[in-house]
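Homework help board

Subject: predicted structure for assignment chain

Our instructor gave us this sequence and asked us to write out the predicted structure in token form, then describe one feature. I got the tokens but I'm not sure how to describe them. Can anyone check?
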Amino acid sequence: MNEPTAYGRPAGHETAAVQVHTPTPVVPAPLMPTQPGTIPAVASVVLPDGRVVTGYAIEHTQPAPLAAKPAVSRAAVNVALGGVGFLAVCGGLLMLTTFIAALTALVTQLVILAAVVFGGWIAVQVFSASGHRGGTTVNIRKAVIKRNRFYN
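My token output:
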């Protein structure tokens, strides 16, 4: 059987040796004038598994600075807050006026309803043909005659 090696793999499965190749930078053509130091240095990085990655370092571009916001004056803030407050007061007064008008209409309708109900109760009492119910009945003709002292 294959005995495991120090790396935990069975014997006979060794990996090949890693060869590091360092690329040579390309020199620009003589027709293209360049300033010294424009060619970046070649960087190599050794990964944890032993592989080597070689390449050019890339500089991160810095974002453009944000434009400074202009300062807002206290007077402008006060005017804006005053306008908001004024609109809130106007809206509240409009709602209060509407509420008072609705409450007045409700009270008026309740008074009319009470008058109709009470008037209907009186009408039923006056025009009922149920006869005497134990109340006092007045004969108007005899009362008038007695008042004027015309006796029978």
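Reply (TA_rk): Your tokens look well-formed. For the description, you could write something like this. The first strand starts at residue 42 and ends at 46. That's the kind of observation they're looking for.
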